[in-house]
Write the structure tokens for this entry.
Amino acid sequence: MTDRLKDELLTLALEAARRAGALLRDSRPADLGVAATKTSAIDVVTEMDIASEKLITGYLSEARPDDGFLGEEGSSTAGSSGVRWVIDPIDGTVNYLYGLPAWAVSIAAEIDGETAVGVVEIPSRGETFRAVLGEGAYVGDRRLEARPAPSLEQALVGTGFGYVTERRAAQAEIVRNVLPRVRDIRRGGSAAIDLCDVACGRLDGYYERGLNPWDFAAGELIAREAGARTGGRPGESLSTELAVAASPGLFEPLQQLLDELGAWHD
Ligand code: LIP
């Protein structure tokens, strides 16, 4: 994994995210509606999700035609270069559909299966989060450090919910038990932004069950490179089963509480 390759991938990811963010910000139709649904009637896709993913994959494949892709809206090619792009063209699609500001473009690059570069572009905030494996995390030119860990009782914790009724009922029961144990809960609607907020100290911790790789690939690297800990159940990596991210001193008590509550299953 050469520094030169990581630099190239970061430069491409930043420009692709910038272009997609500008398209989404400046060309959002006033009458934006639902173009399709996926796992349920509330799991929606808009024409802008599709347009954003097309812009990103087109730009990246022109620059690096042998790379692979995994995109939320269907881009899926193995590639032959050892590099795979993991793309969420709009993370926070429901927020974008409703005209709420908490949405982002999330682009990660894996080299031989390991996430090496992550970019999260948040146009409504004018913020670009980025990280390269082993080289720290930044928002703009400011290096990021996760907030010093509070006690669990003093922690501001983000979370999110899936789109399928049975899972949402199970998640409601988990958050019912977490809420009295922490300072407060925030449900922003974008995992990528939530992970960046842990990285920059706007959240002390975050957890969610049921995320897809495109939701967390870039944000997890940014959080880790900012000094936060990430994972799933104790001893396991962050995954669709369970995503947990927090300042180092808070991570284990939060992870332990979630494991005791069974946050890793429906
Ligand atoms: C979203 C996630 C968020 C979750 C939402 C949704 P999408 O991704 O980023 O954390 O709570 O339900 O899954 O669908 O907007 O790309």
Remarks:
- Residues 72, 88, 91-93, 160-162, 189-191, 208, 215 surround L-MYO-inositol-1-phosphate (CB under 6 Å).
- The chain has two domains: 3-143, 152-261.
